[in-house]
Each structure stands twice: as C-alpha cells, then as structure tokens.
Specification:
Aldehyde Oxidoreductase, domain 4; binds dioxothiomolybdenum(VI) ion; 24% helix; 3 domains; 28 strands; alpha+beta; 5-stranded mixed beta sheet; 7-stranded mixed beta sheet
Length: 703
C-alpha cells in the first residue's frame, strides 16, 4: 500500500459498504433477539385537549396482544428535559399524532391490529395550527436554535432602507418539511435485570444513553445504546425520540425484548420537522450595488410543549457587508407537533430567502448576480466583527462560474425559449458554520502491528467509520488497512452526536490526539509490545469547544440550469453544480457523496418537497412518501460537486470544516433564480410545483 492510500483526502472506500449492499448490516429493528415482541403506537386523533377515557378491552382480547400501555398504567418516567419524550405520563394531548397508547404483541401484525381496536374518547378543545405573519401569539425569542440571539440590529436599518437608491422588499415562504430518512425511527430494547440494552436508530448513542438513564432513573453505566448502522437521520435522530422511550417502557413492563418501528406516517408528528418560515427580506443598495441596508425578518412556529426556533435569519449575519442590518425571529406557539432539526436548520430556509432577494436585487440593478455577491464581500464577519478564519466564497463563485459556463448566459431575465421549453440558469451562495463538540477516544497498538481506535461516533451513512480510520492512519503514520475503528456503541469512549456537520471535526480531533499520543508512546517503546498492546486516550473537552477568535464557516456556490414546461408547469433541473470551500477534504469519495446528497435534498426542497398543516384537523396532510415527494433518480440530472482546498489553521488538527449540510444551503434559491431567468416570473413560495408555476405564468405564456 502506497502512502497516498493512507493520506487524508484519499478516496477510501466505505468500510461497511459490502455489508450494506449485501444486506448483512443490521439496523435497529433487525436485532432478532430470542423472545422479541413488537409494539405499535396509538396516536391522538385531536390536535388539542385530553384523553377522557381509553378502552383497551377489545385490544387485549385481540390475538397475540400481550399488553396495552396507556397514561393510566405505563411506567412512570423521571421528569424529562425534553418534553417530547414524556410519553404516556398524563392525559394531555398537545398535538395530533401524540402517542396515547402502545400495543405490545407477539407479532407486528398483531400489534397493529390491537392498536386499531383501542377505543379512545377525547375532550377536544379548539385548536390553532395556522401560522400567519400577524399572529397575536408571536414573540421574539431570546435565542433561536443553536443558541443564536433571537434579534440583532446594527445602525438604523429602517431609515437606511427607506433612503436607499435601489430597494428590494420581498416576502418568501418555505413550507414545513420532513426529514424522512430511508430507515424510519426504530429501537429494540431489552432489560437484563437492571441493565437496559437498546439498539436505536440514532445519530448519537452517548446522548440517548444519558436520556434513557435519566428517564428510567439508572446510572449511565447500566444503559447501553447501540447504533451500529443507521439509515439516515438528517437531524430527526439527533437526540432520543419517543420510539426509544416507548420500546424501553414496553420491555420493562413485559420482560420481553421489544421492537418499536415507527410507521412512516407517524414520523411527521413524532420525530420533529422543519418548521415553516415566513420571510420578509429588505435589501437597500446604492447605484453601484453596495448594500446599505439588510433586513431579514422571519416568523415561524413551534409547539405548545417545546420552544424550537428555526434560526433562519442567522445566515444574513454572516453573508454580506452592510452598515445597517436587522436580523430577527418571531415564533408562534401553535397546537402543532414539535419542530426540530432538519439538515441545515436555519441556513436552508434562510438562504432560500436571502439568496432569492440578492437575485432580485441584481435584476433591479441590472448587475450580474455573481458580481453583486462579490461586490458585497465583507472584510470581517458583519455581525460579530470577527475576522474569518478563512472565507473563499469569491473563489467558489468564480470557479463555479467558470465550470458552469456562466459567461455564456444571457444577462437579461427571461422568458428565454428553447424549443417548446423555457430555459434559464441561476446562482446562489451557501454557508454553514464550523461546529465542534468535545469527544473522547482511545487508540491501541497491538503486538501484531495492527491498531484499534475506539470512539462512540455514529455513521449515519456519511462514511464516518471510514474517515476516522483515515484520520487515525494519518496521525499514526501507518497504512490504512492496519487500523480498525469501533464506533456506534455507548460503551465506547463517549462522543458527540452526528449533527451540525460536526462529527468528523469532533470525533476526528479526539482520534487524532489519541493516535498522536500513541505514536509518541510507541517511539519511546523498545522491543516487542506486551500482550494487551499499548493504549493512549484523549478527551478534547476544553480544547475542541473553546471559543474561537475567528468567525468560522464553510462557504460554497451553487449553479443551476432549469427547463420550464409552460404547458404542464413542470420544472426540470438540467444541471446542478456546486463548488465548496470547506477546509481540507478528508475523503474525496465520501465527501462528494455528502455534497451531492445535500444538493439533491435542496433540489427536493425547491421542486417537490412540501407539507401542509390541515387547519381543520391539525394534521400534516403529506405524511407518507406517496404524498411527500422526495427526489428520485429521474429527478436528479447531472450533479457535480467540486471544492477548493483551504489551508485554515484555526479549525482542528485535520484542518477540516463540516460538509454534511452545506450542500442543501442555497440550492433551492439557485433553482428558483434559474426559474426566474427562464420565465421572467419570480416565485417566492416553495416548492415550485407545476400548479404553482402555471398559476404564476402570465396568460400569454401559458399555452
Ligand atoms: Mo443535522 S440537522 O445537524 O443532524
């Protein structure tokens, strides 16, 4: 094996790839422990109120049913930090789809039939699930998700906007969106005396262990959570979700191992969703195209039991120089399911609005949208005044423009006909913060010359297992095939979750440090290693999470070419091209997958994905994959991801920035801007479905 095979950056193959494609990789519901039974939740059919009576007689008589848990008989949990996990503890119904019973049976089919036989009487109250700009319940939260201040203001934004030579004042809407990972949320729980062992489909087993230990009043070392293979998460598995609590409760009550797999239709109400966002963006500029005022105001919803505020105005604090600025969030608690993280929370919807508005400003100024962005590059991070640790947005825009063939684009907005279709192209920028969390890891040198690295990282499909081996091999200075990684088990050294695009930086830092220490130890060692080998460990608490003097973000640029059919209203993306500046890329093969995966999800956000709250029933109407359309292969044309390697000494020992989320950021805006370029029509509400596109087209254009 040559040196380049071990070096960071190499296109190392996914270590578990063979297991996955041959079906031998086991997921949370596939641990067929002897005596294992199944459970099916019963969920609330009202949006607000309480369960008055629940009759389980018929369900209990149903073949194969072992027990039915309700709020009247379920095990009592300790107070939950996360109110969405306090399931079957009282009769309150905070939203439709809230679990009100759990039927445990010998088979999945029997559990499902039993659930259908549970009779429930409700005390229903009036509900309100409709988000509006002028909702009287709206307030400005102290913090939005991620700990960002709810409101920030510099200068005199209203006055500066009013007196600006060129103005854009536009409202955008992003609907609720659902994560829908390929593997639905699932857990298999088993009690062995006072020990709880759980296989959970989760993005972070260390945190799930802490949550279960607290809820069931156990010391953490009596709980093991395994998440060896996870079929995606996109944030919806970031922390414990109700299914794992229900599985552990049912296993405790029955004394049997219990599997809970949430049916796909239950996911929208139970695992979090991207909250809808209503945006008002105001951009004021001088005649030369320099921004003088930037205002981004976002209204969103949360549930009655948990405040979660989609931080959609936050990217406007990072992107462009402007002496006057306001970025603010307002949130309305409604009788809706609790929203939560979905790939690039904040940035994904926020950059749809901001980057669409920048395109509108470019049109108003008659400026090229690439050049407009370059003209408004800030010297320091506008909101904090901190210097950027590295920022290569301009290079991404230029390199993307070159590769895409932007120079040949007609600078004027459409309509641009090409045969029976309208064709256009658009651009948008991307940003995602550098997030790092402390983790621990151990590295062991074995007498046979091999190495074992242990860290409770989670590979949710990203290639984490593989890239951590690369980090270790690089730090140890040994070939990649001599390093084995053990991840996905809470008995391993504690580590942070796979979220916020922070996994590789966080776990990798601990792995790098453990391996560096081990290498130093080996250098001092003479003769044969003793039998257990030589071990070194690392804990990056206090180091990895230290405040930086630098503003640290990954940047990127997205270019899209679309064709719009004015007969059917269908928008097809013909080409999608992204260029990213995200530090050192540690595995070119898996990184490319992350980028194009994010771009594909952005394409879905632009064209097909959208959910609506049914005002009458308080339900998400698009709750399965027949109604909630994620892109399929036929929707995804030539997608290209490229990157500019950055040398940034202010990140982590590998010099990497996160890459899991930036691909979705700005992609929908690039596509929307391309649709404007094709048609001359500005659509400000996602997704751009045929009905919406047709409705917006002027009558002379619709044939
Ligand atoms: Mo991602 S939404 O941070 O799991």
């Amino acid at each position: 094996m040559s040196d380049t095979d071990t070096a960071l950056g190499a296109p190392a193959e996914r270590r578990e790839g063979r297991e996955k494609v041959t079906g031998t990789a086991r997921y949370a519901a596939e641990h067929t422990v002897p005596g294992r039974v199944h459970a099916w939740p019963v969920t609330a059919a009202i949006a607000c109120g309480a369960v008055r009576a629940i009759d389980t007689t018929e369900a209990l008589r149903s073949a194969g049913v072992i027990t039915v848990l309700t709020h009247e008989n379920a095990p009592r949990l300790a107070d939950a930090d996360d109110p969405t996990l306090a399931v079957l503890q009282n009769s309150r119904v905070p939203h439709r789809g809230w679990p009100i019973a759990l039927v445990v049976a010998e088979t999945l089919e029997a559990a499902r039939a039993g659930a259908a036989a549970v009779r429930v009487e409700y005390e229903a109250q009036d509900h309100d699930v409709t988000l509006t700009d002028s909702h009287p319940g709206a307030y400005v939260p102290e913090e939005a998700n991620g700990g960002y201040p709810g409101h920030r203001e510099r200068g005199a934004p209203e006055g500066a906007f009013a007196s600006a030579a060129v103005r854009v004042d536009a409202a955008y809407r992003v609907p609720p969106l659902h994560n829908h990972p390929m593997e639905p949320h699932a857990a298999t729980a088993q009690w062995d005396g006072h020990r709880l062992v759980v296989h959970d489909s989760s993005q972070g087993a260390t945190a799930v262990r802490a949550t279960l230990a607290a809820l069931f009043r156990l010391p953490e070392d009596q709980v093991t959570v395994v998440a060896e293979h996870v079929g995606g998460g996109f944030g919806s598995k970031g922390t414990a979700r109700p299914h794992v609590v229900l599985a552990a409760m049912a296993a405790r009550r029955t004394g049997r191992p219990v599997t809970v797999v949430l049916p796909r239709r239950f996911l929208p109400a139970l695992v979090g969703h991207r909250a809808p966002t209503l945006h008002r963006v105001r951009l004021g500029a001088d005649e030369q195209g320099s921004l003088t005022a930037l205002l981004h105001e976002v209204t969103t919803h949360t549930s009655r039991i948990k405040e979660f505020v989609e931080q959609a105005a936050v990217p406007a604090r990072v992107m462009y120089a402007s002496p006057h600025s306001r970025t603010t969030h307002r949130v309305v608690p409604l009788d809706v399911p609790s929203p939560s993280w979905m790939r690039a929370p904040g940035e994904a919807p926020g950059m749809f609005a901001l980057e669409s508005a920048m395109d509108e400003l470019a049109v108003a100024l008659g400026t090229d949208p690439v050049e407009l962005r370059i003209a408004n590059e800030p010297d320091t991070e506008p909101d904090s005044g901190k210097p950027f640790s590295s920022r290569h947005l301009v290079e991404c825009l230029r390199e993307g423009a070159r590769r895409f063939g932007w120079a040949h684009r007609d600078p004027h907005p459409g309509p641009h006909s090409s045969g029976p279709l309208l064709v256009g192209s658009g651009v948008a920028a991307a940003v995602y913060p550098v997030l790092i969390q402390p983790s621990t890891a151990t590295a062991r040198a074995l007498p046979n010359g091999n190495f074992t690295v242990r860290v409770n990282a989670t590979d949710i499909g990203t290639g984490a297992r593989t890239v951590l081996a690369q980090v270790a091999a690089d730090a140890l200075g040994v070939p990649l095939d001599r390093v084995r990684t053990e991840i996905g088990n809470s008995d391993l050294p504690s580590a942070s979750l796979a979220g916020g695009s922070s996994g590789t930086a966080s776990w990798g830092w601990a792995v790098h440090e453990a391996c560096t220490r081990l290498r130093a130890g080996l250098a001092e060692h003479t003769g044969q290693l003793p039998e257990p080998g030589l071990t070194a460990s690392a804990d990056t608490a206090g180091t990895a999470d230290a405040d930086s003097d630098y503003a640290r973000h990954a940047f990127g640029a997205h270019f899209a070419e679309v064709a719009v059919d004015t007969v059917t209203g269908e928008v097809r993306v013909r080409r999608l091209l992204g260029v990213y500046a995200a530090g050192h890329i540690l595995n070119s093969r898996t990184a490319r997958s992350q980028f194009i995966g994010g771009m594909t999800m952005g394409l879905g956000m632009a064209l097909t994905e959208g959910s609506t709250m049914d005002a009458a029933f308080g339900d998400f109407t698009e709750s399965d994959l027949a109604a909630y359309h994620v892109p399929v292969h036929a929707d995804v044309p030539a997608v290209e991801a490229h990157w500019i390697d950055e040398d940034d000494p202010h990140l982590n020992p590998m010099g990497s920035k996160g890459i899991g989320e930036i691909g979705i950021v700005g992609t929908a805006a690039a596509i929307g801007n391309a649709v404007h370029h094709a048609t001359g029509v500005r659509y400000r509400e996602l997704p751009l479905t045929p009905d919406r596109v047709l409705t917006g087209l002027p009558s002379f254009m619709a044939r």
